[in-house]
Amino acid sequence: MKKPTKPKFKRQEYFRYKKLGDKYRKPKGKTSKRRRYEARKPAMASIGYGSPKTMRGLHPSGYQDILVRNMTDLEKLEPATQAGRISSTIGKRKKELMLEKAKELGIKILNKGL
């Protein structure tokens, strides 16, 4: 199952003032048309856009993202539900060994770029 896509929520009048930027803020104005959900206004962030409970906290690929620091951490992973992310403190030589071991065990590695 894949996470549902949601619109990019932008701040009210973000196009008018550069200082506002792209970060979303809830409209608070008394007469704000966007706050009152009037027609033809962009979507406002709300609880209904949340992802399903089963998908929350997962990597976009659908696997649970687990940080791997050594070979024993790698061997503990469950290939069906978990994917490994090799720590940035691991050197190139050990990373290559870990990638070979992961291939043997059938484990998905999220940052295998060499």
Automatic annotation (TrEMBL):
GO terms for biological process: translation. Pfam families: Ribosomal_L32e (PF01655). Residues 20-60 are annotated as: Disordered. Keywords: Ribonucleoprotein, Ribosomal protein. InterPro entries: Ribosomal_eL32, Ribosomal_eL32_arc, Ribosomal_eL32_sf. SUPFAM superfamilies: Ribosomal protein L32e. Residues 25-38 have a biased composition (Basic residues). GO terms for molecular function: structural constituent of ribosome. CDD domains: Ribosomal_L32_L32e. GO terms for cellular component: cytosolic large ribosomal subunit. Belongs to the eukaryotic ribosomal protein eL32 family. This is Large ribosomal subunit protein eL32. The lineage of its organism: Archaea, Methanobacteriati, Methanobacteriota, Methanomada group, Methanobacteria.
